[in-house]
Amino acid sequence: MGRLRTVASEFWNDVRAQKLRTSLTILGITWGTVAVVVLLAFGTGLERATLKRFHGLGDRVVMLFGGTTTKPFQGFPDGRSIRLTEDDAHILKQQVPEIERISPEFSRRGTPVKHGRAIMNPNITGCWPDYTFMRNVIPDFGGRFINEEDVEKRRRVAVLGDRVREMLFEGESGDVVGRQIMIGETPFTIVGVMKPKNQSSSYNSRDQDRVFIPASTHRAMFGDRYVNNLVYQTADPEASQRAEEQVYKVLGGKYRFDPTDEDALGVWDTTEFEKMFSYLFLAFNGFFAIVGSFTLTVGGIGVANIMYIVVKERTKEIGIKRSVGARKADILRQFFLESTAIVFVGALIGFVLSLGVVRLVRFGDMEEFIGVPTVSPAVAIITMSLLGLIALFAGWFPARKAANLDPVECLRQ
Known about the structure:
The chain has 14 helices and eleven strands. The protein is an alpha+beta fold. Strands 4-3-7-8-6-9-5-2-10-1-11 form an eleven-stranded mixed beta sheet. β7 and β8 (about 185-195) form a beta hairpin.
């Protein structure tokens, strides 16, 4: 305890003797800390916002489309179009155990949807009840999504996207569940309105611009034999690849195409897409960390320089201490702790300023574009690791030089 008190006293005396130099050195560490923390906080916020908007499309979902064969198979030529039907959803549900949920998806545009004088042409989507869980189309309070009985009885019920509700019932507040709209010339009862959600990706249209009705009702009303696509979800993201292989085998057997012919079906696996996003942001945040570390390294060089100057100015003092019994380890510890103290003070100020900057940005109206900057545990760990390395290298070499000075030569000076 006495040694630490002595080191602290000598450090304070050095600071008082070299106020400007020490202040500028601490400022370098502070600015470097702010650069690392703020850049990584913005990167983390942007990553989370992007993934959140992407999850608006659904979690672990696969969109399956019909394609065109590129390989001859069992006497059938290549170039055949594969068109999927609602029955394929039943077949895949029964024969591919990795598939937890599945729904056909009919999509139609051009049919007007009306309420009073309001009229629009949204995407009219026919689906099964599991669609709500896979695609995160969650009904708002007081409403529901399509259920099994709706599908079995071909009920004329509809769930509105939140933007469709705003357009059809503009200026009207309150619940619209139970009211009617016209799809073409057919009346439909509203059973739910989708909760607003962030969605950055889509393959037909944003869910806010859709009207969802039972798949059986859609097929009977519009006479579509083929679905636009199937949507399925696996229980485990790791099972996605196995499920895809089984899908090709099952449908290849039904439609007589080579299961290795990837172009026979179109597959959009959001799990793989999310992995690509994670790799992209890993590189993105790595770049931010490197840029910030350059600034922090400049501050570390400043710490090393000032400690070398301190060693030179206190050469005689070092000689006296060594001559009265101080060991090399004592001198090494003293100067290393002093340099570490400079880094610590600069880092502490830098963290406080960084948190202030992050909170200040949150008051701005930029969340839609850059997300919410977040000082996550990962950001803190990366910053502390960089600061630890800076403190080690900036303090070790000057301290080692001080410890290795010859006491006789020190006293001569």
